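Listing S7. Sequence submitted for prediction.
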Amino acid sequence: MTRDQSRPPSSSRSFYRQVQAASFGTILAQAVTLLSVPVITRIYEPENVGVYALFMILPNIVIPNLAGKFDVAIPVPRSDAVARELLGLGVKCIIGITPFLAVLAVIFRLFRTDQQAFEPVFFTTLVPTYAALAASLVLMQFLLVRTGDFFRLGLVRLILATTTSLSSIAFALLGLETEGLILGACTGQFTALLLISFWNKRWLQFSLIKWSNRTTFVLWRFRSFPAVNATTGIFNSLMLVVPFIGIATYFDDQVLGWFELGSRIAAAPIMLAASIIGSVNLRKVAELVSNGGRPDQHVFKIMLRMWAIALPPMIFILLFGPDIVALIFGEAWRPAGAYLQFLAPAFAAQFVAAPLSTTISATRNNKLGGFWNIGALATLCGTILIVGPIGDTSAFFFWIGITRFVNYLAYQLLILYCARNPVR
């Protein structure tokens, strides 16, 4: 009888080397994505991008939670056998939930009878397909986190961005419109998943879909991940997609396309900061808490530096947003720059808060973070329901920007409170 393999402990020095390796691939992936956007905006119309954003509403809600958050748990146990059971639980969740997503896609399509850009079969087939591919890719990426292969993790992100961008451009040249963007996204997910599955083939066994007494034990041991983390994840996902739902309800696909472009531009630095600084901040705060240090001083110092980085581009967008967007992406996309002007302070506040949000987990104040998620989602939905029916896009984006700015300022205050009051 063989013993379960376990991970060797990693030193602080190797940890930072691995973070740098992952950062390299992530930075290149963001660069590829941003460089491809000016090409995509010249071969796709704003309406095409708007319908693509509409297509992505359901997947973006479910993808982070489709594996039941067992993906996040994979790096936690020391035993590889337990990690393999968690991988199997994630696979079972994806297989079990995806058919229900197909039903939701059918219902969603029925409520959008005015939407002629999709054939019903195409829409209801590709929504669950894309979601299952993306969720499986996320699940497999956490295997690389567990094995400490951060270079390959960054490489996967780079391949995903490159394949998606090139495929989307190629499908447009073949004469496809919105379908080209969707098929390009699916191609990118499939290619990256194929590669990462090859790298992790020793983990992929038929037993992953079987159920045993050990599976039941592991499920009970890690029950908080689907019960707590998945619930919080749903609120996070809803907060990101609610503005898209509001725009799809009260405005046309062109407005949705302009907002999608503005969000994509702003999301790049936010995601980059969150992926690089967030993990380092998590480790630093956890060490300060365990050693009886002052994590609040560290967090406040980083917060001031993040604001110093965020303010110059925010002011630049407030002054020249429409002109810059029209110059880079084409005159047809000028309104996206105007929307960015309304939303720039909110995106700046999110840029500061996102990487420091790991402070809440490191100080074990997860419940407070959950309360903020509920409050932020409620105020955002309330703003959309009040302002949306007016039909004025300027008023809509102005008040959405104000609401999100206030919410993320409150989040920063919460982060500082958690850093000052860790649960020891």
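Caption to Listing S7: primary sequence and predicted structure tokens for the chain studied. The CA atoms of residues 324 and 337 lie 7 Å apart. Confidence is low (pLDDT under 50) at residues 7-13.
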